[in-house]
Every structure is written in structure tokens, then in C-alpha cells.
Specification:
With 191 residues, the protein is an alpha/beta fold. It has helices spanning 32-47, 69-78, 110-127, 143-146, 165-169, 172-189, and strands at residues 4-10, 53-57, 83-90, 101-105, 137-139, 152-159. The chain has a 6-stranded mixed sheet with strand order 2-1-3-6-4-5.
Length: 191
């Protein structure tokens, strides 16, 4: 049986302006790319062992280059990926307590909505980071969802400026749990 191709995209580059944790919550202002990358690294290293999956990254794994969304789409499409996952962390809490995980889908087919809900539930089951989003699983017109030729999901794995989320998302344990949720999801989708 041929390996299933999975493409991962760690959002933004290491030096993308503004994409970092809020200084009053994280004095080192951890960059979003680092949070995204360590999750993608874990998923890639675990899934690339064995005969079931081949995982490719669509971003620059050093973080030094901010790969454009259009290039990430071209890479995923050129790889003829069976599934594409975009890993991001959010902002907008402005130091407050709002936050949580969200999963977006770009195709309203029943199957895609169900996949988004399943991955969201796995992320919540593994991490417990429910937050207070009124609609944590929703349709989006983001290009990386609309223009990829394969099923795609876009994850926002907590808020970098939330007084509740930030201490959690900075931990290695949290990144391990997010990676495991993604791995469990893909193993279930491709039995």
C-alpha cells in the first residue's frame, strides 16, 4: 500500500513582525513560528516512521524565511498531498482571559466539517484548552484552505496574548499533546 502524503505548514517565519507572545505574559516574547514549528516537528518525526505516512513541510523548517501562503499552497499541491494541516497560534485577547483552540475548514462538504469537528475534539481531549470561543469550529475563506487540492484544516492552537492560554501553550507538554492529537486524527482518517 502506498504511503499517504501529509503536508504540514507551520505558520509564519521566525522573524515575521508582530507574531509573538505578549511581553507582559512571556518576557522572552516567544515567536509564533517556534510554537508552530515544534508541533509540526513532532508530528513529522513520529509519522515518518513506518509504512503508513510520508510527511512534508511546506514552510522553511529553519524559520529564517517567511514562506508565502501561495508558495505553501504550490508545495502542498505539487506533493499531491492526501491531507494538509496548517498549524498556527492566535492573538486578539490583548492580555485578557479569552482564548482557546479553533479549527477552520475551507470546504463546507459534510465530510470536511466532520473532520474539523473530530480534530477539534481530539485537541480538546488531549489538551483541555477549551477557551471561550463561541464557535470553535468554523468555515473560513483563508487561501491555504481554499486553494489546496486536498482536504485541509487550519488550526489556531491557543492565544499568544491570553493570560490563560499563554502559560499553557509555552509548555513542552502542551506541544506534545497537540502533536499527539494531530497524529491520532490522521491515523483515524487513514485506517
Amino acid at each position: 500500500m502506498a504511503k499517504k502524503i501529509i503536508t504540514l505548514s507551520a505558520g509564519h517565519g521566525l522573524f515575521t513582525p508582530g507574531k509573538r507572545c505578549m511581553k507582559k505574559l512571556d518576557p522572552t516574547e516567544t515567536r509564533e513560528w517556534w510554537l508552530n514549528d515544534r508541533i509540526c516537528d513532532k508530528v513529522e518525526s513520529i509519522l515518518n516512521v513506518g509504512d503508513k505516512f510520508k510527511v512534508y513541510r511546506c514552510d522553511d523548517t529553519t524559520g529564517k524565511k517567511d514562506v508565502s501562503v501561495s508558495q505553501k499552497i504550490r508545495t502542498a499541491n505539487a506533493r499531491k498531498s492526501d491531507f494538509h494541516i496548517c498549524v498556527h497560534h492566535n492573538a486578539g485577547a490583548k492580555g485578557g482571559k479569552s482564548g482557546g483552540i479553533t479549527v477552520m475548514y475551507g470546504n463546507s462538504k459534510t465530510e470536511r466539517v466532520s473532520q474539523a469537528r473530530r480534530l477539534y475534539q481530539l485537541l480538546i481531549n488531549h489538551t483541555g484548552l477549551i477557551g471561550n470561543r463561541s464557535n470553535p469550529v468554523y468555515f473560513s475563506t483563508l487561501s491555504e484552505l481554499k486553494k489546496t487540492n486536498m482536504p485541509s484544516l487550519y488550526l489556531e492552537l491557543g492565544f499568544m496574548d491570553s493570560s490563560i492560554d499563554t502559560p499553557i501553550i509555552l509548555t513542552e507538554d502542551y506541544s506534545n499533546k497537540c502533536a499527539q492529537a494531530i497524529i491520532d486524527f490522521l491515523n483515524t482518517e487513514f485506517k
